[in-house]
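[step 3/7] inverse_fold.run input=structure_tokens len=478
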């Protein structure tokens, strides 16, 4: 964070040093034990002018000029980054009370009690870290989680009672066993193996948000249709529709807590960059600035077509085998902004003999071009490539893909253990941002694929969209 001193006698001099950009700030007093005033604002100078300059026109306005001796701030590019930065400051000073100050309640999860001999599911706001692989969420609210759990249980025969079962034929059972909505392990209405099989199906249903059940039912439906068993196929189709309606109650964010990973793209405070945040291992890392240098930025307001929807960058193309000459660089016609020489040279792979000649005399001009020298050069180059066929020249990896992978590797670097406050706060901030109305939710979010890998190409397209909105907002504001 940047910081300056503050003198109440000369408040204008200090305020003149502040930017008029969005920022997270903290006002510190002269006493070391005094609690700072922490906030966020879309205009740092204007906000602190109201707090640190007394006004006769507004005598009841909060005035802190007599208490403040130091101003610290950090520029931010989005509301998401502002909330995350504000929580970080509050947590460092107030600890667990930061959750109350920012109204960050514990999100709701569906917990699968797999350690019980007869598993069941329940809704909780405090999933155990020891069983984080059996906690599925976060849901938008507790009511949403309870509704999903209730509708999911209608598809299976799992028990709903909360007592610790001691199966016995003398057990009276319950209404769900009478309605054939439970396997009734309480009075040994099924074998332990049968109940374990049903419980495993429920666990898989929660882990895949219903996709595992849909795959089975669709396969059975297709098989029935192939056998011309249309009555059975119609019944299976109705079950498919029921499962799809239940699946719609769980958003894409609902995952096993132990496997919850996401990349959030936001506007950056630095021009020419997009802020990349990584949620992994229960906390946010970032932002890491992703440079849009060399990218074709999509501007929706300019009427650009889908031809520009895929980010492009200047990439070095090695020359074909032939006369030895200076490396030629082919520039994509879809690239708008130039890229620096370091990015271009990083993509080139010279032949060992060419690299040696360049390192020996990089400033030496090329020899005169005549027919004899060109022929000699052609024969020499052919001989070298024939003897060194194991090291062919190849196209370098895409500059943008490598840049994104480097940013993700930086964010996923190992960090120390985190407190329960940070874990709950970061998860609550992710849930609050994600479940906003789409029209009010700035930025984009991406999840890993089934193999656990990040969709780099989709991330780059998201970067282009976020950068395009930044350009449009900048043009609009002048």
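[step 3/7] decode complete -> sequence:
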């Amino acid at each position: 964070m940047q910081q300056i001193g503050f003198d109440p006698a000369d408040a204008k001099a200090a305020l003149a040093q502040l930017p008029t950009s969005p920022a997270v700030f903290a006002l510190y007093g002269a006493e070391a034990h005094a609690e700072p005033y922490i906030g966020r604002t879309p205009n740092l100078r204007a906000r602190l002018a109201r707090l640190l300059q007394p006004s006769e026109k507004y005598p009841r306005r909060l005035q802190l000029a007599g208490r403040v001796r130091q101003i610290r701030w950090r520029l931010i590019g989005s509301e998401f980054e502002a909330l995350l930065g504000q929580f970080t400051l509050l947590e460092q000073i107030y600890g667990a009370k930061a959750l109350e100050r920012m109204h960050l309640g514990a999100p709701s999860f569906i917990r699968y009690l797999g350690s019980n001999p007869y598993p069941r599911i329940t809704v909780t706001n405090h999933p155990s870290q020891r069983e984080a692989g059996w906690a599925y969420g976060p849901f938008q609210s507790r009511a949403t989680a309870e509704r999903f759990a209730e509708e999911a249980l209608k598809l299976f025969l799992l028990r709903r009672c909360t007592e610790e079962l001691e199966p016995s034929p003398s057990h009276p059972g319950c209404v769900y066993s009478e309605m054939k909505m439970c396997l009734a392990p309480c009075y040994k209405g099924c074998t332990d193996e049968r109940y374990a099989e049903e419980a495993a199906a429920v666990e898989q249903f929660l882990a895949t948000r219903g996709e595992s059940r849909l795959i089975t039912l669709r396969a059975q439906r297709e098989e029935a249709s192939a056998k011309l068993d249309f009555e059975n196929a119609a019944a299976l189709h109705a079950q498919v529709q029921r499962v799809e309606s239940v699946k719609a109650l769980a958003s894409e964010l609902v995952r096993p807590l132990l496997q919850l990973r996401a990349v959030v793209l936001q506007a950056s405070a630095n021009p020419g960059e997009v802020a990349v945040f990584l949620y992994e291992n229960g906390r946010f890392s970032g932002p890491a600035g992703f440079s849009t240098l060399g990218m074709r930025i999509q501007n929706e307001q300019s009427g650009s077509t889908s031809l520009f929807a895929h980010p492009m960058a200047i990439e070095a193309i090695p020359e074909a085998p032939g006369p030895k000459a200076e490396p030629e660089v082919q520039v994509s016609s879809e690239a708008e902004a130039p890229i620096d020489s370091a990015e271009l040279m990083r993509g080139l792979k010279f032949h060992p003999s060419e690299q040696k000649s360049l390192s020996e005399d990089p400033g030496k001009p090329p020899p005169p071009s005549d027919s004899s020298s060109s022929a000699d050069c052609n024969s020499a180059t052919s001989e070298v490539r024939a003897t060194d066929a194991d090291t062919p020249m190849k196209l370098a990896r895409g500059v943008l893909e490598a840049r994104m992978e480097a940013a993700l590797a930086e964010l996923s670097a190992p960090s120390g253990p985190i407190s329960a406050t940070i874990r709950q706060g970061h998860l609550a901030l992710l849930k609050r941002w994600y479940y906003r109305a789409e029209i009010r939710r700035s930025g984009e979010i991406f999840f890993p694929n089934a193999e656990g890998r990040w969709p780099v190409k989709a991330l780059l397209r998201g970067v282009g969209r976020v950068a395009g909105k930044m350009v449009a907002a900048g043009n609009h504001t002048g």
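[step 4/7] annotate
Residues 302-309, 324-396 have pLDDT under 50 and may be disordered.
The chain has 15 helices and twelve strands.
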